[in-house]
Amino acid sequence: MKCLIIGSGPAGYTAAIYAARADMKPVMYQGLQPGGQLTITTEVENYPGYPKGTQGPEMMEDFKAQAERFGTDVRFGYASEVDFSKKPYRVVIDENKTVTADTVIIATGASAKWLGLESEQRLNGYGVSACAVCDGFFFRGQDVAIVGAGDTAAEEATYLAKLCKKVYMIVRRDEMRASKAMQHRVENTPNIEILWNTDTQEILGSKTVEGVRVKNNQTGEEKELKVTGFFVAIGHKPNSDIFKGWLDMDDTGYIKVKPGTSKTNVEGVFAAGDVADKIYRQAVTAAGTGCMAALDAERYLASQGIH
Ligand code: NDP
Q1: 232, 266, 285: which is the final residue of a domain?
Q2: Residues with active-site annotation
Q3: 57 phi/psi in degrees, rounded to 5
Q4: Strand order, beta sheet including 222-225
Q5: What is the pTM of this model?
Q6: How far apart are CA 145 and CA 108, in angstroms?
Q7: CA–centroid distance, residue 249 to ligand 1 (Å)
Q8: 81 C-alpha vs ligand 1 centroid, how far in Å?
Q9: What is the pLDDT of residues 160-192, one digit of tens each?
Q10: How many other CB atoms are there within 10 angstroms of residue 53's CB atom?
Q11: Measuring CA to CA, how many Å separate 21 from each of 1, 28, 105?
């Protein structure tokens, strides 16, 4: 194939729309979460062109329909291994099938990080969530806790405070990583209680969240917070593991691209969206870089005389 697109969020689909219209006959493998992170959100109000807002999953169906309309071959399956040592590049799908491609557009996105507690996994979707904006609504008028101290945690804590009766913010150090402006917003919200130097020991509840046991890591004191929702906001991890050793990355695994382009260190391999962006992480910026990747791929194919 001429153009392989890995991943099906806004970056992947936008790349597909441009590549298909440029007659590059793109093949897309959707990955483990077809549609990407937007499929686990609800209302999207900041994507231009939807003056009344739209639903994340619906928006991704629209992206898909538009990519297919121009002939993108959208397939189930995830990339499990790559070999960029020679052209055409080889990509293993679902650990058992190898495809080759002249150009590869990587749009594998990022995933939320978790604390790694057994109770967190067991109650995921039953009161445990990594997306306050998606799930805060279910806890209206209730008490909840959120762990994390970066800008995301601060933003989500203030968001939750508008819906919920009380928000406990669990911070593992004696200071926050969030910007000063965000910290002030948190500190000035009366129904947010910040628990400094505090670790989460266990999320309590058999079927749904009933509380959380926390421990002060300075004094050793433990206590239980009565909450029905537990939000995790401790950062994201780029889905770039299979490219390690092939592509240049920063120390947290975000793929490095040549500034102002989608070019990785391997010619003909491009990266777009959250897998290469730890700063903006928006649907619209992902779509923008997806467009760049398709245009960069088109120019690359032309430079190689591949038509
Ligand atoms: P960050 O990596 O900035 O912050 C993660 C936070 O989670 C840190 O406070 C960290 O604590 C804490 N943490 C990590 N692991 C654990 C753990 N196991 N237990 C408890 N706490 C833990 O991630 P964000 O998602 O907040 O932000 C990512 C990037 O996006 C940042 O650059 C941020 O500025 C940006 N952003 C900007 C926004 C805006 O400008 N409006 C909104 C949202 C994000 P510690 O500090 O101790 O390491």
Answers
A1: 232
A2: 131, 134-135
A3: -60, -40
A4: 198-204, 211-216, 222-225
A5: 0.79
A6: 30
A7: 19
A8: 29
A9: 999 999 999 999 999 999 999 999 999 999 999
A10: 12
A11: 16, 14, 16
